Amino acid sequence: MGDLAMHRDTSVVVQDLFQRAKRSLLLSTYGIYGGREIFRTLAVRMESAAELRVRMFLNIQAQGNAGTFAQDFRRYHWPEDAPLPEVYYDVRSQGTVAHGEAAVMHAKCIVMDVEEVLVTSANFTEAAQHRNIEVGLLVRSAVIARQVTEFFDGLVSAGWCSPLRF
């Protein structure tokens, strides 16, 4: 089978990042399913650390669906009565783009405290977190973490990503 010493389930790495975050968490994903359970640890962490800023960059699949997505996020994907994170989406997914092709947020990563970055194939779904064969790379580098954070900051500054209104 080979050396599995560096192998950990995606959920173990993700939950560890959620628990250790002190200042900031930036998450991006294409898909969420069953997020209420996946994000429970993060919501608890947000309640205990008021200074923790959490930003999520999420894909909204259906054109013109941002309002419905906001309701569904609260209802199905975020723990009840927990403080909400900042949620952003690619505005190009909600309108027409050149040649009629839709744009999607397909990046999947977590940046913790601008010090560590997990880049992964895993979405925030129960299957991806617990059953699927996924590959992720956890890098402890403030330089790379800052570059990834600046990339997402640039998407917001350029108007490509907008905050979701709850």
Biggest sheet, spatial arrangement of strands: 8-6-5-1-3-4-9
> Which structural category fits the helices and strands?
alpha/beta
> What does the overall shape look like?
globular
In the CATH scheme, what's the topology name? Endonuclease, Chain A
Radius of gyration: 16 Å
**Strand proportion:** 15-25%
Order of helices and strands: HEEHHEHEEEEHEHE
The CATH architecture is 2-Layer Sandwich
Q: Can you tell me the CATH class? A: Alpha Beta
Determine the CATH superfamily.
Answer: Endonuclease Chain A
Summarize the structure.
With 166 residues, the protein is α/β, with parallel strands linked by helices. The chain contains six helices and nine strands; from the N terminus they run H-E-E-H-H-E-H-E-E-E-E-H-E-H-E.
Task: Report on this structure.
With 166 residues, this protein is of the alpha/beta class. It has a single domain (10-163), classed as Endonuclease, Chain A (2-Layer Sandwich). The protein contains six helices and nine strands, in the order αββααβαββββαβαβ. The protein has helices at residues 10-20, 35-38, 40-48, 66-77, 126-130, 142-157, and strands at 24-29, 32-33, 53-58, 86-90, 109-112, 116-120, 124-125, 136-140, 161-163. It has a seven-stranded mixed beta sheet with strand order 8-6-5-1-3-4-9, with helices on both faces. The radius of gyration is 16 Å and the shape is globular. The model has no long low-confidence stretch (mean pLDDT 90).
